[in-house]
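User: Here's a chain of 399 residues. Predict its fold as tokens.
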Amino acid sequence: MNILREATRLLEGNRRMTNGYQYTIPSAEHYPYQWLWDSCFHAVILAQYDPEAARAELRSLLSRQFADGMIPHIIYWSPGILHLFRWGVEGTSSLTQPPMLAYAAWEIHRRNPDKKFLESIYPGLLSYYKFLIERRDPRDHHLIGVINPDETGEDNSPRFDAPLSAAPDISYKDHLALRTKLVDENTACNFNAEMCMRNFFWVKDVPFNTILVENLRALGHIASFLKHGDGEHFANLHAELIATAMRDCLFEGGVYWSATGADYALLKVATWAHFAPLFAGLYSTSEADTLVRFQLLNPDTFYAPHGIRTVSKQELSYRGEGYDNGFSWRGPTWMAVHWFIYRGLLRYGYKKEAADIRDKSIALLEKSGFRECFNPETGEGQGARGFTWGALVLDMNDG
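Assistant: Prediction complete.
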């Protein structure tokens, strides 16, 4: 398989234009909308060979930004299609998703400098990150809360079983019902975090906050380049504050755990979230070495024949296959997870291990094609076909 040719063909085939905005859908088969972090991944990939298309992805995302700065995790460009999580909002969902925007914007600029583009999107970027800092941290403890598992992009991860009161063997249908109920409850709250929403589901998630730290650093680079001193100070200050709070509140036993509630009760389910902080350099060198050697490369926990399990094999909730061959975040391998871990490994100098992640990713595509996720034990593709995340292997090229 010629990965570049097939990935390029897929991204171009999934490209859409609506009301003058160009964007890429994750899968024509199952996902005919625009998703927030998916479009950021698309932008990172497209930056390598089609920077104008990459810029278009971010422009379309920012076109539906809310007045308070939030960017919704789904934009329903096509009317008449079943819409999820859209209560109280016309044309979009009422949730957000991991904030990869600034990283994507800076990556586009790094590869193809365009000051005017950065200037045009900077106010929206700053407004979005201020929304997260000001509206999702009502107690000023410097940890950002998510109001629904879907905001993490990992819809049914067992990290969220305890706050949802979900059993390890819960069905996908029942899990979706719990998450939909959260949206109903938050709609009744008018999505007021400080007064109401945190009473139902308020998780300080490790990957979400890790991604935010690294994106605030990217926002700082953008602000510095554009000579916006106040924005640079805001971004760098809060990147450091969040990183420090994660260490103080979410770190125990050599790894980071997500937490819930006002007392930051740790959600001790072993998932790939342990590895996410590598992406932002939040582990010390010795901590990273222990993590990589005894967890990431451990076949009894995360290291599988065909990739990294998203849930430790030792967890009761682990299952390598998706629901009815559909998607699942309860064990299957996902390309975005591989990409985050790959980037984190390179950051700490683990070039051999990063190359192994890349090689396994390519092998999955060659075996099963561009699928939504994969069985880590067999390499069998699962979920949607023609799924764009596989194209992230094009950004695994310097290991």
